[in-house]
Design brief:
Number of strands: 0
CATH architecture: Up-down Bundle
CATH superfamily: MFS general substrate transporter like domains
Number of domains: 1
Largest sheet: none
Helix content: over 70%
Order of helices and strands: HHHHHHHHHHHHHHH
Strand content: under 5%
Structural class: mainly alpha
Distance between the termini: 27 Å
CATH topology: Growth Hormone, Chain: A
Shape: globular
C-alpha cells in the first residue's frame, strides 16, 4: 500500500498530541484524587475500572477496525476523549470518577488500536527497528513535556488546569488526523470480512509469551503513573512536590526518547530478545534503589537511568510483536496486545493499591520490581526470534 511521504510524520503528530494529554495529567492525577480524601485503594479500583474499559473495547475495535475504517475510528476517539478530559474537573465522588474513567478508556481504545495498526503498515520491511526507534524517539521527546507542564500548572494555577490543557491538545491531534493520507488495504478489507479466520497463525507460543510480558509490564506502567507520585509525595525520604514529581517523570521521558534513537537500530542488529531481557530486569531492579535514596534531587539521575531501560523493554516488546504478527492481521494482533495490557492493568491497579494501604508502600515497590525481573526470565526461556536481515550501516 503506497502512502504519501509525509504520512508517518502526520501520524507522529496525531499520536504525540493524543498521548501528550495523558502525560500532562500523569503527575497530578492520583494526587488530585488523593487530595479529595480518597485512599490509594480507591485509586487502584479506579484504575481497574479504567482498565476494564480498555479490556472490553480494545479487542472489540481490533476485530472491527478494518471494517469500520481505522482513520475514522481514530478521529472519533480523539474528539470524544478530548471532551471527557474536562469532565474530570466536575467529579465529586468516586462513582463520578469510575464512570468518567470507563468512558475515557472505552473511547481511547478506538484510537489506540487504529493508530497502532496504521503504524505497523507504514513501517518498512527492512530496517523497521531503526525507523520505529526514531519514530518512538520523536514521540517520547514530545511527550516528556507533558509531566513538566502538568506539574507546573498544578503548582502555579490549580489541579484542574492540566485537564483543560489536555482537552485543548485534542485540537492538534484532530487536525493532523484529518490531514493524514491513508487508504485501507484491499487485502485487509477482504480478510476482515472473512468468516473463517485462521487464528492458529496468530496464536503462536512466542505471541502468547509477548502478551504475558505485556501484562507484566503494566505493573510498571500503573505503578509509575498512579502509585509512585503518591509514594514520592508522602515518603519522608523524598517529600517531593508536584513540580519535582513532574520533572522526575519528564526526565524519564527525555532519556526514553534519546535511548530510542539508537535502540531501534540495535534491535535490528542483535534482536529484540536481548534488549527485552536487560530492559525488564534492570528497569525492575532500579526501583529497589528507592529504599536507600533520600532527597528529591536524587530522583533525577534515577529517572535518567530508568528511562533507558524502560525504553528498551517497551520498544523491544513492540518490535517482537510486529515481527510475530502474520501479514494482514495487524488490527487483531494489536487488539489482543491491547487486551493483555488491560488485563495486566486491572490486576496491577487493584493489587498495588491494596498493597500500598494494607501492607505498606515499600511492599508495592518490591512487587513491581519482582514482576519485571520475572518477566525478563520468562522472555529468555520462551521467546524464539526469527532470523533477521543484515542491516547495513
Amino acid at each position: 500500500m503506497a502512502q504519501k511521504p509525509g504520512s508517518l510524520k502526520l501520524l507522529l503528530i496525531v499520536q504525540l498530541a493524543f498521548w501528550l494529554r495523558e502525560g500532562v495529567i500523569s503527575p497530578i492525577f492520583a494526587l488530585y484524587i488523593r487530595g479529595m480524601g480518597f485512599s490509594v485503594t480507591d485509586i487502584g479500583i479506579l484504575m481497574l475500572v479504567r482498565s476494564l474499559g480498555w479490556a472490553i473495547f480494545e479487542p472489540t475495535f481490533g476485530m472491527l477496525a478494518d471494517r469500520l475504517g481505522k482513520k475514522k475510528l481514530m478521529i472519533i476517539s480523539i474528539v470524544t476523549t478530548s471532551f471527557i478530559y474536562t469532565l474530570y474537573t466536575f467529579a465529586t465522588s468516586m462513582m463520578h470518577f469510575y464512570l468518567i474513567a470507563f468512558a475515557m478508556s472505552s473511547f481511547s481504545a478506538a484510537g489506540s488500536v487504529s493508530s497502532r495498526a496504521i503504524l505497523t503498515e507504514f513501517l518498512p520491511q527492512s530496517g523497521r527497528g531503526k525507523v520505529y526507534g526514531r519514530y518512538m524517539a520523536g514521540l517520547s521527546m514530545g511527550r516528556m513535556l507533558g509531566p513538566f507542564l502538568g506539574g507546573f500548572l498544578a503548582d502555579v494555577i490549580s489541579f484542574t488546569a492540566p485537564f483543560y490543557v489536555a482537552a485543548g491538545l485534542g485540537v492538534v491531534s484532530i487536525a493532523a488526523a484529518i490531514s493524514l493520507r491513508y487508504v485501507e488495504s484491499s487485502k485487509v478489507k477482504i480478510a476482515s470480512q472473512s468468516i473463517s479466520i485462521n487464528m492458529n497463525s496468530l496464536l503462536t507460543k512466542s505471541f502468547i509469551c509477548i502478551l504475558i510480558l505485556r501484562m507484566f509490564w503494566m505493573f510498571n506502567m500503573n505503578f509509575e503513573r498512579n502509585v509512585l507520585p503518591i509514594y514520592l509525595n508522602e515518603n519522608q525520604n523524598f517529600r517531593a512536590s508536584e513540580t519535582q514529581i513532574g520533572i522526575y517523570m519528564g526526565v524519564i521521558q527525555l532519556t526514553t526518547g534519546l535511548s530510542q534513537l539508537f535502540l531501534g537500530d540495535l534491535t535490528d542488529r542483535i534482536g529484540a530478545k536481548k534488549i527485552m531481557f536487560y530492559g525488564l530486569s534492570l528497569g525492575g531492579l532500579s526501583y529497589l534503589s528507592l529504599f536507600f535514596l533520600k532527597g528529591s534531587l536524587v530522583l533525577y539521575p534515577l529517572g535518567a537511568f530508568q528511562g533507558i531501560f524502560f525504553a528498551a523493554a517497551d520498544l523491544s516488546l513492540m518490535m517482537q510483536l510486529i515481527t510475530t504478527i502474520p501479514e494482514n492481521n495487524s488490527s487483531r494482533g494489536m487488539g489482543m496486545y491491547g487486551f493483555s495490557e488491560d488485563i495486566g492493568g486491572m490486576i496491577a491497579s487493584l493489587s498495588l493499591g491494596i498493597m500500598y494501604d494494607s501492607m505498606g508502600p515499600n511492599f508495592s515497590v518490591l512487587t513491581v520490581s519482582t514482576v519485571l525481573v520475572s518477566g525478563a526470565i520468562i522472555s529468555t526461556i520462551i521467546i524464539r526470534e526469527k532470523k533477521r536481515d543484515v542491516v547495513n550501516t
